[in-house]
Amino acid sequence: MESGFFNNIVLLDFAGNLQLTIGKSADNGLVVSILLRNESCGDSAKDLIPPLTLMGTAEELDEGFFAQIAKPVEQVSGLLVDMEAFLVQMEIAKKNSAMEKQQEEMKRKRREAKEKKYKEVMDKVDALEKEGKFRDAWTKLPDPAEFPEQAELIRKRKSELSTRFAPDLFGATASQVHNVSEQVEEESDPNDDADALVDDGFSDEEE
Question: Which regions are flagged for Polar residues bias (predicted)?
């Protein structure tokens, strides 16, 4: 006897495994339970989908079985596929979110490290300036290009420090040159020399 049962199964649109349970009812009829399982779906909610149950005589089921189950099987199959697709997208979203958080964390750490480096350098500059080592403080200032956000402040600080020293050919600062000049003037007072000459003159005439 040819019923075309399996040919009709092939024509059903579903993904997964179609489980059929067939039993006899008290009135000599049949009870057919159809459950579609899709193991590729990782959503546990799939276990809440109930089986489709049909009851009738053998003749009734022969005539209308596939017409009755075709649409529900297709819908359940689509639901399971959508559930899995949803889970996949959720996982992708989580990964992207984690990657974004990781990138933000890396940016934050780099920013904090840069701020720390800038502070350490500027603290050294401040210390050298307090010690009167203006040239050393000037050379310690970082390149403005290295700290774009502080570039204007660095340039201003360089300008201020450069006015505190005026480098000459011998590497001495203006204040050092000025101090040396004062010392020379103190050591060789022209008035003292004039007095000495006058004294020598009078001494010669008396002789």
Answer: 173-182
**Tokens 């109930």 correspond to what residue?**
50
- What is d(CA 77, CA 20) in angstroms, rounded to the nearest whole number? 15
Residue 185 to residues 18, 42, 168, 177, 190, Cα–Cα distance (Å): 113, 96, 21, 12, 9
Q: Is 94 among the domain residues?
A: no
Domain limits at 22?
5-76
CB 147 within 8 A of CB 154: yes
Q: What confidence tens digit (pLDDT) does each residue in 123-151 have?
A: 999 999 999 899 999 999 999 999 999 99
Cα 71 off chain centre by: 49
Q: Identify the residue whose tokens are 């579903």.
A: 14
Residue 58: Cβ-neighbour burial (10 angstroms; 0-12, 13-18, 19+): exposed
**What residues form DSSP beta bridges with 55?**
31
How far apart, in whole angstroms, are the C-alpha atoms of residue 157 and residue 139?
11
Domains of the chain: total? 2
**194: in domain:** yes
